[in-house]
Amino acid sequence: MKVVRVCSAPLDSAAELAPLAMLGGGAVASFTGICRDQGGITAIELEHYPGMTESSLAALVDDACARWSLLGAVLIHRVGYIAAGQPIVLVGTAASHRAEALDACAYLIDRLKTDIPFWKKEHCADGTADWVDAKASDDERAERWTE
């Protein structure tokens, strides 16, 4: 089971992850990324390149499934205007054993941050908005999976 989707609608983590628990494995791992409510940020705006983004996400999930013995994976990313406190991304993995589910989940979110074409703008309470540059720390985390 693989679910890969880009959407603008709010995420229902419980509903999206429930099918993973039904696959008969011993572990489901998940990560939900939430728009930070820090430093005056009131929202983010995410843009993407339709078609390219979905195929890049699907390839990333395929890579994880090839690397670990996953029973299933869910990777859903929102685009558009997302208010502080709302979920942005959901990653879920199911496997027979916890280590595979946890490692695959970490791999997906780490690689997602560097390999998938999204552009993020932060909107602030003072009315300003700025595009966000890539972070070296994200590159460092993603690099650990190339070993």
Summarize the structure.
The chain has 147 residues and is an alpha+beta fold.
| Derived structural class | alpha+beta
Largest sheet: 4 strands, mixed
CATH superfamily: Molybdopterin biosynthesis MoaE subunit
CATH topology annotation: Aldehyde Oxidoreductase, domain 3
Number of domains: 1
Poorly predicted runs: none
Principal-axis shape equals globular
Task: Give a description of the structure.
This protein is α+β, with helices and mostly antiparallel strands and 147 residues long. It has a single domain (2-146), classed as Molybdopterin biosynthesis MoaE subunit (Aldehyde Oxidoreductase, domain 3). Helices cover 35% and strands 37% of the residues. It has four helices and eight strands. The chain has helices at residues 13-21, 52-67, 98-115, 136-143, and strands at residues 2-7, 27-34, 41-48, 70-78, 80-83, 87-95, 118-124, 129-131. The protein has a four-stranded mixed β-sheet with strand order 1-4-6-2, sandwiched between helices. Helix 2 (52-67) packs antiparallel against helix 3 and helix 3 crosses helix 4. The longest helix is centred in the last third of the chain and has 18 residues, at 98-115. The radius of gyration is 15 Å and the shape is globular. It starts with a strand and ends with a helix. The mean pLDDT is 95.
